[in-house]
């Protein structure tokens, strides 16, 4: 993967560029019928849907937390809460998630939020050399290593997703 001039410029790609992180930008069809109502990124647009992660904003005991899970999974709020030592976790509304992160509702990226949030990444990300996450603009993803993703978001890994 070679870093090139990005096809899209967002706060996420700005962070990657400034930190000299290797990444690739990929475009996908935003009108795909395979996209779930909250997924944003349709899993059928990628070679391996298990490598495509979406950012879900949760509220754990009144603290906003970002959770990255594969697009073909759902967030397990009990596991999210346990992973951060909380008692309850609820998924934030799309509007609240957008307000907290500064990204459009269907294009929330874990990188480049207006204010960094505590972040969890499902352990499945460690199974791959690279993963896809939102670039912060609908129709575009960033491909990067899970190691770089963990470092840039100051995240921890935990089993926080359940298969559909």
Beta percentage is 25-35%
- The number of distinct structural domains comes to 1
- CATH C-level class is Alpha Beta
Largest sheet features: 5 strands, mixed
Helix content: 10-25%
Could you describe the 3D structure shown?
The chain has 164 residues and is an alpha+beta fold. It has one domain (11-163): YbaK protein (Alpha-Beta Complex), CATH 3.90.960. It has 4 helices and 10 strands; from the N terminus they run αββββαβαβββαββ. The protein has helices at 11-18, 77-83, 94-101, 146-153; strands spanning 24-27, 53-60, 63-70, 73-75, 89-91, 119-122, 131-134, 140-144, 156-158, 161-163. Strands 5-2-3-6-9 form a 5-stranded mixed beta sheet. It is globular.
Gist of the model:
This protein is α+β, with helices and mostly antiparallel strands and 164 residues long. The protein has helices spanning 11-18, 77-83, 94-101, 146-153, and strands spanning 24-27, 53-60, 63-70, 73-75, 89-91, 119-122, 131-134, 140-144, 156-158, 161-163. It has a single domain (11-163), classed as Alpha-Beta Complex (YbaK protein), CATH 3.90.960.
Features:
disordered N terminus, YbaK protein, 164 residues, 4 helices, 5-stranded mixed sheet, 27% strand, 10 strands, single chain, alpha+beta, 3-stranded antiparallel sheet
């Amino acid at each position: 993967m070679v870093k090139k001039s990005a096809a899209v410029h967002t706060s996420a790609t700005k962070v990657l560029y400034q930190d000299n992180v290797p990444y690739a930008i990929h475009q996908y069809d935003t009108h795909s019928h395979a996209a779930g109502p909250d997924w944003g990124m349709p899993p059928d647009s990628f070679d391996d849907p298990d490598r495509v992660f979406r950012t879900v904003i949760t509220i754990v005991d009144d603290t906003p937390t970002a959770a990255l899970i594969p697009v073909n999974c759902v967030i397990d709020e009990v596991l999210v809460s346990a992973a951060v030592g909380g008692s309850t976790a609820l998924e934030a509304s799309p509007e609240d998630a957008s307000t907290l992160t500064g990204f459009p509702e269907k294009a929330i990226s874990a990188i480049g939020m207006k204010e960094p949030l505590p972040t969890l990444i499902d352990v499945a990300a460690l199974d791959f050399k690279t993963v896809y996450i939102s670039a912060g603009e609908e129709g575009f993803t960033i491909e990067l290593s899970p190691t770089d993703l963990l470092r840039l978001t100051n995240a921890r890994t935990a089993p926080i997703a359940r298969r559909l």
